[in-house]
Amino acid sequence: MDDAALLEKLAPEAERFLERHLEASREWFPHQLVPWAEAGMVDWDRPWEPGEHPMPEPVRRALVVNLLTEDNLPYYTTAIHRLFGVDHPWGAWARRWTAEEGRHSIVIRDYLTVTRAVDPVALERGRMQQMNHGFHQPIAGAAEGFVYVALQELATRIAHRNTGKLLDDPAGYEVMSRVAADENLHFLFYRDVVTAALSVDPSSMVLAMERQVRDFEMPGAGIEGFRDHAMAIARAGIYDLTIHHDQILVPVVLRHWGLESLEGLSPAAEKSRARLVSRIERTRQIGLRMAERREEAVAVVV
After folding, report:
1. How confident is the model at residue 301 (pLDDT cuts 50, 70, 90)?
2. Looking at residue 48, what DSSP letter applies?
3. Mean pLDDT, residues 127-133 taken together
4. pLDDT band at residue 25, thresholds of 50, 70 and 90?
5. Which residue in 251, 230, 283 sits closest to 69, CA to CA?
6. What is the rounded distance in angstroms from the CA atom of residue 92 to the CA atom of residue 242?
7. Using one digit for the tens of pLDDT, what is the confidence trace for 269-290?
8. Are the C-beta atoms of 14 and 93 separated by less than 8 Å?
9. Is the N or C terminus of the chain more exposed, i.e. has fewer CB atoms within 10 Å?
């Protein structure tokens, strides 16, 4: 089934999921979550120093990655419009999603700026670099788009929430929790679109799953120094391969989408399913080995 036919077939479900999203969404205002009183204690002309807002360095890195990921919104919106179109209900969903994601970048940036939790000059330079880099996840068609965004929204929710838990700051925790709650609703929309698509064209969806799980990268992969950020974030337990396996691939791909129990697949999709099941198992094994190495490294330091 080509993209146009798939999108038309799924349009009633997308409309239903959008209505569900609007009913579940809670109105909130970024300005109410930001500790503005702290701004009055800042000498804005003085160069930033880490001691202004002490926190573990991996958490600081996670906050930067989280924000710069949200900042790249124009590229994501363009990609979604390209993949799903602008007609109702897909266009209505894309506009609502864009508005909510924009609110995320507003509240995180205001929080970081007011509290001076990160270097505001480096943060702005990072935004400029990230926006110029763009977003280049290889996504071929609507089926792959549905799968990628479902996985990405859940990964983002997990990263935001885990970052918030490590913040010794009630305001920061509330900011990240609020954003994570929105990301969960976005995840549910795309997760259930994929579920609906599996009943329409299971073979195409399995092929899409394999490609997107194989090539999956978070949108922040284009951030300068992302590898070092990602390693620090993994060491802190905010997001690593084990989390990716245990909290995304297993509960979503294997259980909710029922990868191993799907029927009526084409020969190509059957082979793709077998490769994907093997890849998920390899991800588990690699994640465990990486976690063991981190523990060994910590033991040596201690």
Report:
1. very low
2. P
3. 85
4. very high
5. 230
6. 35
7. 999 999 999 999 999 999 999 8
8. yes
9. C
All residues at 6 or more sequence positions from 81 whose CB lies less than 8 Å from its CB, including other chains? 91, 94
Q: With beta carbons less than 8 A apart as the criterion, state whether 162 and 238 touch.
A: yes
Give mean pLDDT, residues 234-250: 94
Amino acid at 18: L
Residue 82 CB coordination number (10 Å)? 12
Q: Which residue has the tokens 């969404």?
A: 25
Residue 147's nearest CA partner among 104, 102, 97, 197 is 197
pLDDT tens, residue by residue, 174-189: 999 999 999 999 999 9
Alpha helices (H) along 38-169: 57-71, 73-84, 90-115, 120-133, 142-165
C-alpha closest to that of 114 among 161, 66, 171: 171
Please calculate the CA angle 129-134-136 and round it to the nearest 5 degrees: 135
Domains in the chain, start-ordered, CATH in brackets? 16-44+51-301 (1.10.620.20)
Q: How far apart are the first and last CA of the chain?
A: 57
